[in-house]
Amino acid sequence: MLLNVKAYHKPRSIDEAFNIWSDHKDESVLIAGGTNVALMKSHIPKHLIDLKSLGLNDVKEKGNEIVVGAMIDIESFRKNQAIRKNFGDFFFKSFDDIASPQLRNMITIGGSIAAKVGWSDVTTCLLATESRLMTFGINGYQNINITEFNRLPRDKKPIITHIILSKEDFIYGFSRFTKSAFDISLVNVGIALKIESDIVKRSRFVIGSRPQLPDRFLDVEEGIENLKFDDNLPTIARNLVFEHFTGGSNYLASVEYRRHLASVLTERILTELGGV
Amino acid sequence: MSERKKFNYVNKNEIKVDGPSILKGKPVYTDDFDFPGALHVVLVRSTYPHARIKSIDKEKALKVPGVVEILTYEDVPQKIFTKAGQGYPEPSPYDSFILSKKVRYVGDPVAIVAAETVNAARIAASKVNVEYEKLEPVLDFKKATKDGAPVIHDEEGTKDIYDPSRNIASHYEMEVGNTDEVMEKCDYVVEKTYHINTQLHAMMEPHVSISYYDANGRLVVITSTQVPFHTRRILSMIFDIPIRKIRVIKPRIGGGFGGKQAVHVEPYVIAVTLKTGRPARMIFERPEVSMATNIRHEMEFKATVGASKDGTIKALSLDGLSNTGAYGEHALTVFMVAGSKTLPLYNKVEAVRFRGDVVYTNLPPAGAYRGYGAPQGLFALDCVIDELAHELEADPLELKRKNAIKEGETSPIFKIMGEGTEGVEQIVRSCKLDECIEKGKKIIKWDEKINHKKEPGKKVRGVGCALAMQGSGIAKVDMGAASVKVNEDGSVNLHLGATDLGTGSDTIMAQIVAETLDIPVEKVIVYSSDTDMTPFDVGAYASSTTYVSGNAVKNAAEKLKNRIKEKAAHYLNTDVDNIEVKNQHALNKENGEKISFSDLFTKLFYTFEQEQLMASASYVGNESPPPYLATFAEVEVDLETGKVDVLKIVSVADCGMPINPIQARGQLEGATMQGLGWALYEDVKYDGRGRMLTNDFFTYKIPSRMDYVNMECYLVDSYEPSGPFGAKSIAEIGIDTPVPAIANAIYNATGIRLREAPFSSEKLLMEILKNEI
Amino acid sequence: MKIKLTVNKKAHEVQIDPGEMLLDVLRRLGYKSVRRSCDSASCGNCTVLLEGKPILSCITFAASVDNCSIETVEGLSEKEELHPIQEAILETGGSQCGYCISGLTLTIKSFLAENPDPDDEEIKKALVGNLCRCTGYESQIKAVKLAAKKLRGEKR
Question: What CATH code is assigned to B19-27+479-620?
Fold first, then answer.
């Protein structure tokens, strides 16, 4: 709980939000859904800046892209018609397993990314779809990818205003392993495949909750490029993941267990995608 | 059952008397009471597992606006006591202080901060500067007695610590016959070591207390406790305040499971009220509930079973080590129950031995927790017998059933092992274990599944069983009392000390009075657990409430019934033997003349032989009739991930005649789920410095609704002659069986025997890969 | 700062600390049915309905719901009669210590409004964010099905 908050701001424009944030850099916190901020135990933040008051929570189709307001909650996002039309059940089913109905009504897409928590299933799925971020910072609006955003130091971080998804000809799969059904992932895997004439033209392999932040595993992607999308592929990919997995141990699991699970989940996702 | 007749109010699913108020969200829990002007109390806690306090600097903290008082060990009495809520003299070591000069676990209280607001108290607490002289900690209970291990309780004045220099809080041993000799002669001997880790109660309401002076200068404590009377006595002792100047009130509480069978919050708020004269309140945050109240005793047992080739178990031995953490409340008694409430189940042995040490460590203090040692002992006992069955190539269920105690039998252990001392001899008057087994095995389809062939595939299934017994109160020790008085409208006030923690005891006591007097349950007004207004009761533990407190209530109601009959006889001008009490009336059996209770009681207040009809009774059990339980689990193991899914868990119990079947079954269901959680999901972890990492519900996972597929619980027809209307207990036993039943099912599914609980999927996967299944 | 809240159709204007959580403000206003249990968004005991949707009040900043409409359990039984969901929970033994019940009742209410005839699996999933330590969940599943029947008019 935050013990020392002096002001709760409800900016009316992204400009105003960014200015307040810059003015009180070390003593202010941005709030989207609020779920992460509320759990902070500190008496340092004095200013809270509510981004939900900006109303950035709609979903718009713009040509080849879908532009999603960052403050949309994940329940509304996964049920959105435009998202389902273009991504099938990928977000609809994957996000349905996250947390609980109450939390899905509160967690936002933007907040999930900005919080930089390793176990974020949302981030894994967005990386698998190679989503980009529209941000507002010192240099005004910029379009950057999630990895770039995560690398920026605190004093250079912009505010995420939108998530941009591309309509592309990929198929997607996601799976997670948890101890209890109401739990964060012990490890999660998101896969995207571009198949042409039964050949894997391109792919994205994202593994998260390693426990570190989700990351792409390019060695695996290279390893299956131009392979046939047949019954052998899941096992090949499984072995590649086992070989190239990087991660760590924590109270939830050892790195060896995570490595093993990530490879098993990979095989299962690809088997299911192949069955479709 | 010839003793059973048609009941009007017991053996009925009456709605809980406190139900509507809780459903409507009324302010009935401790933290719901507003006390304008009350100080908010927060504790400064040790960040080291073992250290001496060199200095405490309050200066910065006192400057925080709103702070009123900061108390350290110099400001509170240094009376040594045990926090355990048990009968006096408590069979637990006296090794605790309100605030000590030494800290013995991460979370041990160091200072008490009182402020006008919670935030001010928290900020101030973070600014209290404590200097420690760090000491080497003991973080592994197997290393507690090693030569050169740091001594945790080296202070003056401790009592009843078995050997403080070796960190042994308690020691126990008993033997019937010569176990080693009998084992020598057995055809089969199986000896294995089992280890079961600790568990958190995770009750939904955190610990909370409010203290204040009433208008007469008496200290009143409203607190979420299972033991109001023990609390009053302990507070009187440690603060040197006469008992008559203290009142303890338990309102509705949000669960306990043993976690509130000790004095956790009360001393700190009282210290503030004593110092400032003002009301004081404190509610623990969830990490404090997890790390700084009580947890379950971690135990390891070397279990040995010897049998002849026809499957008769001839000798049993349990050799154990129990981890009581930094302080010794409930140390000896929990350890003894690991033997006293498990071994009598297999009473046909020629020799049996139970022994072991309970050791201190610099980890959170262990204490009372549903099952109270029996689940830990049963994990070892049931599994070693299960392993014996596999050596014999016998059905484990049949092997256990054949050797189990039957109605009319006894065990020498009843007499030898009691509450920290000797026990009480008893004959088992009711035991429907067989019926429990028959019903449960049919539902799980045991015979079909126990010998199933292993099919190829990534997922395998298996079944396992476990049998258990417990007790109903502590014979010749636990006392409960009740009083009843009548009102003009035919209603009756029932006052009793017995403690309802959501278990429904207020309700079943009302049902008992209703049945005895033949009046509707709504006409019994229950008030409980207030040391000023209600008679004594030991409190809610040892599964004593239905049997002990229930008998007191029944006896009081019977006495009242006799008084009613006397007065009615006078009024109706007849012999008392002609009076029958029926349907809120007293009637003359001979000529049918009658008077309603409301009429009679009104006259008795104002116009006829004026008297307040009332009666009271106390009850101590001469025996502790065990309930019995058979649990069957079917699991599915994912061989590639090690994940264990419980497809079905069936628990069938004999609890005598349930006063309220839905509530009784609810106890069994809740306990079964709690055992399932312990087996598969609840995993307490510490960091390298003894700090509990899994101290909130984000990190410590109790089962959620989706963590099991199917659970079915049943109560079989039974009747305990010494119980009120044939009732025994049900509250604890359900948690004894899931861990062994699931271990046995995992073995049946995979051939892998897990002897370390909880059964994490990672550990199981490592075993699967090792065995190349 | 001051905020406006409508709770169970009653308008409130209340002075709050800018960093205060909705849970504390509601309890201060007298809605004691809203309970604090875990402080880590992991148990659901603090659930209230915000514009009809279940959220966790222990991690919702009060200032963020200025001018919004909240429902707590006190609103379900204003005339001292029990709501069918509350009746059902009592009849099946779904409440033992009762601490989880307020949050659970509201989640059930919102769920049944969307899914008036659910099966066991759907019930478990919809209520997964409401932990209960006492009941072992079975009696509460029965309660939801019974409540659904009552709300459909099939049972009184």
Answer: 3.30.365.10
Predicted local distance difference test score (pLDDT) of residue B2: 46
> Are residue C113 and residue C135 in the same domain, yes or no?
yes
**Can you tell me the distance from the alpha carbon of A135 to that of A111, in angstroms, rounded to the nearest whole number?**
13
Give percent above pLDDT 70 in chain B. 99
Contacts of A37 in chain C (CB under 8 A): 61
Contact check, Cβ <8 Å, A35/C59: yes
Fold that domain B298-474+623-771 belongs to in CATH: Aldehyde Oxidoreductase; domain 4 (3.30.365)
B20 touches chain C (CB under 8 A): yes
Whether A192 maps to a domain, the answer reads: yes
Q: B33-135+204-255+260-291 domain in CATH 3.90.1170.50?
A: yes
Chains linked to B by 3 or more Cβ pairs within 8 Å: A, C
Q: Do B704 and A253 count as a contact with CB atoms less than 8 A apart?
A: no
Residues C113 and C139 grouped into a single domain: yes
- Encoded tokens for A48: 């809270």
Nearest to B697 among C35, C40, C139 (CB): C40
A48 touching C (Cβ < 8 Å): yes
Average per-residue pLDDT in chain B?
97
Q: Is C56 on the interface with B (CB under 8 A)?
A: no
Bridge-based pairing of strands A65-69 and A159-166 is antiparallel
User: A233 lies in which domain range?
Assistant: 171-275
Confirm or reject contact between C38 and chain B (CB < 8 A): yes
pLDDT, tens digit (0-9, with 9 covering 90-100), for B26-66? 999 999 999 999 999 999 999 999 999 999 999 999 999 99
Q: Which of A166, A190, A209 is the last residue of a domain?
A: A166
pLDDT digits (tens, 9 = 90+) for B539-553: 999 999 999 999 999
Tell me, yes or no, if A34 comes closer than 8 A to chain C by beta carbon.
yes
What's the CA gap between B654 and B657, in Å, rounded?
8
Structure confidence at residue B1 as a pLDDT band (50, 70, 90): very low
Q: Is residue A46 part of a domain?
A: yes
* Tokens 């996000």 sit on residue: A95
Residues C26, C66, single domain; the answer is yes
The C-alpha atoms of residue A101 and residue A86 are separated, in whole angstroms, by 24
Distances (CA, A) of B482 to B252, B525, B615: 19, 13, 8
- Strand B351-360 with B313-325, pairing: parallel
Residue C52 touches chain B, beta carbons under 8 Å: no
Question: Which of C31, C59, C78, C99 to mutate: most B Cβ within 10 Å?
Answer: C99
CA dihedral C131, C134, C138, C142 (to 10 degrees): -90
Q: Taking the model in full, what pTM does it have? A: 0.97
Distance in Å, alpha carbon of C97 to nearest chain B alpha carbon: 3
Domain count, chain A: 3
> Which candidate from C90, C92, C124 shows the least CB-CB separation from B23?
C90
> Does this chain's domain B19-27+479-620 share its CATH topology with B298-474+623-771?
yes
pLDDT digits (tens, 9 = 90+) for B386-423: 999 999 999 999 999 999 999 999 999 999 999 888 99
Dihedral sign of CA atoms B600, B605, B606, B608 in order = positive
Question: What is the DSSP pairing of strand B109-115 with strand B219-223?
Answer: unpaired
Using the predicted structure, report yes or no on whether residue A4 has a pLDDT greater than 90: no
Interface test with A, best of C48, C61, C104, C110 (most A CBs within 10 A): C61
> Looking at chain C from residue 95 to 134, which residues have their Cβ under 8 Å from any Cβ of chain B?
95-102, 105, 123-125, 127-128, 130-134
Parse chain B into domains and list their residue ranges. 19-27+479-620, 33-135+204-255+260-291, 298-474+623-771
| Coil, strand or helix at B74 | helix
Note whether A181 contacts C128, CB cutoff 8 Å: yes
**Chain A residues within 8 A of B704 when measuring between CB atoms:** 180-183
Q: C72 and C91, same structural domain?
A: no
Is the torsion defined by CA of B236, B242, B243, B246 positive or negative? negative
ipTM associated with this complex: 0.97
